[in-house]
Amino acid sequence: MNQDQLKQAVAQAAVDYILPRLERNTIVGVGTGSTANYFIDSLAEHKGLFDGAVASSEASAERLRQHGIPVYDLNAVDRLAVYVDGADESNAQLHLIKGGGAALTREKIVAACSDEFVCIADQSKWVETLGKFPLPVEVIPMARAHVARELVKLGGDPVHRQGCTTDNGNQILDVFGMQIHDAIALETAINQIVGVVANGLFALRAADVLLLGTSTGVQTLRAMQA
Ligand code: 5RP
Fold first, then answer.
1. Is residue 213 lining ligand 1, measured as CB closer than 6 Å?
2. Residue 200 pLDDT > 70, yes or no?
3. pTM to 2 decimals?
4. Which of 132, 144, 214, 226 sees the fewest Cβ atoms within 10 Å?
């Protein structure tokens, strides 16, 4: 199977995973990216079984609406039972790097409001040590240079993602050269930099389950202790 087929397989596996929990009043948290898009397309086949969705980006909201799935403002709903989203990297603790699609802040917010975070990824995203994928950091535009200088002090090599404005009107720094051995500590340290809106480490709120698409099938993984 190629990468796209693996993404489709994990998207379908995520629908199968959440299907028994869908009730008429269920609102599903939906992520962003190509794997999440496959999930939206598969979820749409069951749209009569649940109420609607909260989306982590304008793009996903639009795709959901095109399928006739109602999209709710997060402020209008209580907690979400489940959030399904892709990732750029995952380690064995299910600490993630996300934000390749620049939606990291809203993804983090939706994940924080969800009882269960189901991550869906093809095997290329599985890593021993996080950091080969450049870590996205969303910044308030006027703080970009300041945040970049602080990220250098943390050992990174930040690069402004050209031509990218987030759904929140902010900018992205992609931080290269990080070998992330303590994701919780680094996530916390970056959060302390004035001007940072959010960073793409999902360790303080890691995934609960990873559905990993491999050439031998979809594996269901739960976090291993450090
Ligand atoms: C978007 C994300 C995506 O989940 C991540 O980039 C993975 O994308 P894809 O499913 O297209 O490989 O974090 O901000």
1. no
2. yes
3. 0.97
4. 226
